[in-house]
Specification:
Rossmann fold; 3 domains; 18 helices; 18 strands; disordered N terminus
Length: about 500
C-alpha cells in the first residue's frame, strides 16, 4: 500500500477530470488492454496557481500483478516499494521537463519512475506486467538512452547526413554522417591538411552556404551543400534529412576574414553567431576588457538558467588540465559566488586558457538543438593536452544539444579524438583538390602514426626525407651504402623511409 506522508503533492485516483484541487496530481485510469493488463493512467497536475497541466500517459504496475487493473490507493503522497511506473511515451518525459524542478522530482520519486531511478527498473525487469505491458512497443534504446536523455535535459538525438561539394563538383565532396549513440561519437568531424591547403576557405564556404549569404566572404570556397546526399553505405534522396537551424563560427585568428552574413530574405537561412576576436564591423578587434566582459555576461546567462549543468559538465572535462583544475571551477557554489571572483579567475588565466573558457561558455550559451559549429584551427592557441580536453568537451556538449562540430585543423591531437570515418584529408595541387579518409584508424591512435599518415607529403618534401632520398638516388638505392655513409647515425623513421623508397623502386613505383 501507499505510505502515509504529510508532505509533497497529493495524488488522487479518480475516473474523470473534475473537482481538481491545487497542488494535486490526478491519475485517471484508461481501459486500454495490454495483453490482459490495464496499467495505463492519464496524469494531470494542477499547480499551486491553479494551472492545469496534462502530463500525458503513464503506466503503473504492482509486483506480482498477473492481469487486470493496477490497484492503487484512492489517495496517496508516495507509492510504496511494491509499485513502479514508466512514462507511456516520449511526450510524458518532455512534459516532466516543463515542470519546476522540485515538482518534477516530487512526481518522479513518488510514482517510483523506472527511468528516474534505474535500480527500480532492474528490480521489476522480470515481472510479467513489466514485460507485457509497461515495455510494450518500447525499445531497449528508448529505455536506456532516449528517456534518460530527456530527463537530463539533453536534446533528442537525430542523424545528420550532408555533403559539401567543393566548387560544386560532386566528385570532390566532404561527407558528414552523424549517427546517434555511436561509439566512438560521430558528432565531431575534422578537416585535416597542411597549412595553406585551403581548409579555412572550405569552412568559410560552408558558412556561406548555411547562411545563404548574399555577399559571400572573399576567402570562401564556392560550393553547394546537399542534405541527405548519397553516401557509400546508404542512399537518401537529396533534399531529405535533418537540417541545421543554427550556425556558430569559432575563429580566434587575428588574420581571419570570416564574415558571417545571414540572408534574412531567404527562408532557409539560419541564425549565425560568431565567437572570436573581431568586432561586428569585422575590421577592428575586441580589447581584453571587452573579451572579459563578454565572458562574464555569457557566464551569467549560463549559470542563471537551465544551461548551468551543461556548463559545469563541460568545465569538469577541461579540469583535466592542471591550470583549470587548480581553480576548481566545477566545484564552486554558484548560488552565492561573486561575479567579481569569476572575472578575476578569467583575467588570471593565460591567453590560451582564456580563449578556451570563453569559447566553451559561449557555446553552452548559444548552442541549441540542430546547431552546426565551425571551428578554424583551434590548435594555434592551445598546447596538446588542453586541445584534447577541449575537443572532448565539444563532443559531449554537441551530443547534449544534438549538434555537429566541424573542425579545420592541422593537428594530429584533434584526430586522436575523432574516428577515421569522421576525418577528411585534404590535399591540393594547384587548383585541384583531392579528398580522402586517413589510411589508419585515428581515434586514440599514436600521434607519430597520425603525423606520418596525414602529413606524409609534407615530410616527403622537407627535412631528412630529401637528404635520404637524394643519397639513395645517387648510390643506386643501396641500403648498406646509406648506413655506411651516415655512420649508422640515422633513426628508425629514416631507416623505414629508406627501405620503403628502395622497395618502391624495385617494384617499379618510383
Amino acid at each position: 500500500m501507499a505510505k502515509s506522508v504529510q508532505r509533497g503533492i497529493q495524488f488522487v485516483v479518480q475516473e474523470y477530470e473534475y473537482n481538481l484541487v491545487d497542488n494535486n496530481c490526478y491519475l485517471i485510469p484508461n481501459t486500454w488492454d495490454d495483453f490482459s493488463f490495464k496499467t495505463t493512467f492519464e496524469i494531470i497536475y494542477k499547480d499551486a496557481e491553479g494551472k492545469i497541466r496534462n502530463l500525458s500517459g503513464i503506466k503503473v504496475m504492482q509486483r506480482g500483478q498477473e492481469r487486470g487493473y493496477t490497484q492503487l490507493p484512492p489517495q496517496f503522497t508516495e507509492l510504496d516499494e511494491s509499485y513502479c511506473s514508466l512514462g507511456n511515451s516520449q511526450e510524458y518525459y518532455e512534459e516532466m521537463m516543463n515542470l519546476p524542478e522540485d515538482i518534477r522530482l516530487n512526481i518522479l520519486r513518488s510514482l517510483r519512475d523506472c527511468i528516474f531511478n534505474p535500480a527500480i527498473f532492474t528490480e521489476f525487469s522480470n515481472e510479467r506486467a513489466m514485460r507485457l505491458s509497461l515495455l510494450r512497443d518500447t525499445s531497449d534504446s528508448t529505455i536506456g538512452t532516449l528517456y534518460p536523455s530527456i530527463l537530463k535535459g539533453h536534446a533528442i538525438l537525430t542523424p545528420f547526413r550532408f555533403r559539401f561539394l567543393l566548387n560544386n563538383n560532386p566528385e570532390t565532396s566532404i561527407e558528414v554522417d552523424v549517427t546517434p549513440d555511436s561509439l566512438p561519437p560521430t558528432n565531431i568531424h575534422a578537416l585535416i591538411g597542411r597549412n595553406g591547403v585551403g581548409k579555412t576557405r572550405i569552412v568559410s564556404g560552408i558558412m556561406d552556404c548555411i547562411t545563404k549569404a548574399v555577399k559571400p566572404s572573399q576567402i570562401s570556397m564556392p560550393g553547394t551543400i546537399e542534405f541527405g546526399a548519397i553516401f557509400q553505405d546508404f542512399k537518401i534522396a537529396i533534399g531529405d534529412g535533418e537540417r541545421f537551424t543554427n550556425l556558430i563560427v569559432v575563429v580566434w585568428s587575428a588574420f581571419d576574414n570570416f564574415q558571417p552574413n545571414r540572408n534574412l530574405s531567404d527562408k532557409d537561412s539560419v541564425r549565425c553567431d560568431y565567437i572570436g576576436l573581431k568586432q561586428k564591423d569585422n575590421t577592428t578587434f575586441k580589447t581584453t576588457t571587452e573579451l572579459a566582459r563578454e565572458f562574464v555576461e555569457s557566464f551569467k546567462t549560463c549559470i542563471n538558467s537551465n544551461r548551468r549543468k551543461r556548463w559545469i559538465e563541460a568545465v569538469t572535462i577541461l579540469c583535466s588540465d592542471p591550470i583549470f583544475k587548480e581553480y576548481k571551477l566545477n566545484e564552486l557554489d554558484y548560488e552565492s559566488i561573486a561575479i567579481e571572483y569569476i572575472e578575476s579567475v578569467y583575467n588570471n588565466l593565460s591567453s590560451g586558457h582564456r580563449i578556451i573558457l570563453l569559447t566553451i561558455t559561449r557555446l553552452v550559451q548559444l548552442m541549441d538543438e540542430k546547431t552546426l559549429v565551425l571551428i578554424d584551427e583551434p590548435e594555434n592557441h592551445l598546447h596538446p593536452p588542453l586541445l584534447s580536453s577541449f575537443v572532448k568537451a565539444l563532443s559531449v556538449l554537441a551530443i547534449q544539444r544534438n549538434a555537429v562540430v566541424l573542425i579545420a585543423t592541422h593537428s594530429p591531437v584533434v584526430l586522436q579524438e575523432v574516428p577515421k570515418i569522421c576525418t577528411t584529408k585534404i590535399n591540393r595541387v594547384g587548383s585541384t583538390y583531392t579528398l580522402s579518409r586517413p589510411e589508419f584508424e585515428t581515434y586514440g591512435e599514436n600521434i607519430d602514426i597520425l603525423t606520418r599518415d596525414v602529413f606524409r607529403l609534407e615530410l616527403e618534401e622537407s627535412g631528412f626525407y630529401i637528404t635520404i632520398n637524394d643519397h639513395l638516388q645517387s648510390h643506386n638505392f643501396d641500403y648498406d651504402s646509406l648506413l655506411q655513409s651516415f655512420s649508422d647515425r640515422i633513426g628508425s623513421e629514416a631507416k623505414a623511409i629508406a627501405l620503403a623508397i628502395i622497395a618502391s623502386r624495385r617494384t617499379g613505383d618510383a
